[in-house]
Amino acid sequence: MQNHEIIKTEDGSDTLFNLSSGEHYHSIHGAVQESMHVFIDSGFLYSAPSNTNFNILEVGFGTGLNCLLTCKESISRDVKIFYDAIEPYPITKAMADKLNYTGLDGLSAFINEFTMMHSFDDGAVTIGPRFMLHKLKSTLESIELIPDNFNLVYFDAFSAEAQPELWKAEIFLKIRKSMVPGGILVTYAAKGIVRRALQQSGFTTERLPGPPGKREMLRATAV
Ligand SMILES: C[S@@+](CC[C@H](N)C(=O)[O-])C[C@H]1O[C@@H](n2cnc3c(N)ncnc32)[C@H](O)[C@@H]1O
Q1: pLDDT digits (tens, 9 = 90+) for 135-163
Q2: 59 CA → ligand 1 middle, Å
């Protein structure tokens, strides 16, 4: 059963509203604006991947918007991206086809890439000569992560109110162990309870200005 409604956010890009959790997939002030600010500008571009393999983990693939924007940003870089995405409850291909992302300025050239991203739920595909996507249809809690692997983590789960079990120190510790020293984790959340759980798990944390409509976000560095 389809359990989502498409909502148009204030920057004109779509997001989904999940009827069972009562949660939006992105900020209603702007889905693309939020993803660009939190994950691309504060995470991907801050990490400045260059000239090597670069491993990204996304917690909560959802609409695939972060993956699409990362794919676009990586085009001009001489770097091979290995993008691992965890998503236990994938949206249907039909729902993905209705999202307006590849109709937006700057993203229309990526229609084939976006289609490929939603053509499977569990497995791997090479999306371009330098972009490999691996999707895992599992919960974050139930999977094992390879140690010392990820350079960058997009932590984009539903909120700590909706899914408190995902924002705990033991979960962040598991993620931190899967990251290279100095690796970066970014999340839209800024609550003290999240920041302290990250610190307890061996991250140093920074509070950064959030995207429009949100005062702050967090960037954490694996020590
Ligand atoms: C805020 S939304 C994702 C937004 C997504 N990154 C995007 O750009 O559309 C949170 C996502 O986490 C997924 N999720 C729910 N429970 C999860 C779990 N236990 N482990 C990993 N992901 C989970 C949801 O299905 C949903 O797609």
Answers
A1: 999 999 999 999 999 999 999 999 999 99
A2: 6
Cβ proximity of 133 and 124 under 8 Å = yes
Phi, psi of 80 (to 5 degrees): -95, 120
Report d(CA 7, CA 15) in Å as an integer. 5
Distance 203 CA to ligand 1 centre (A): 22
Among the CATH numbers 3.55.10.10, 2.130.10.10, 3.10.350.10, 3.40.50.150, which is that of 30-222? 3.40.50.150
**Close Cβ partners of 32 (under 8 Å, ≥ 6 residues apart):** 11, 13, 65, 69, 101, 104
Task: Return d(Cα 92, Cα 205) in angstroms, integer.
Answer: 35
Q: Where are the domains of the chain?
A: 30-222
Q: Identify the DSSP state of 119.
A: S
Q: What is the 205 CA–ligand 1 centroid distance (Å)? A: 22
Ligand 1 atom nearest to 31, measured from its CA: 8
Find the 160 Cα to ligand 1 centroid distance in Å. Answer: 12
E strand segments, 39-140: 53-59, 80-86, 123-128, 131-136
pLDDT, one tens digit per residue, over 88-115 is 999 999 999 999 999 999 999 999 999 9
Q: Which residues line ligand 1 (CB under 6 A)?
A: 25, 59-60, 62-63, 65-66, 86-89, 139-141, 156-158, 163, 166
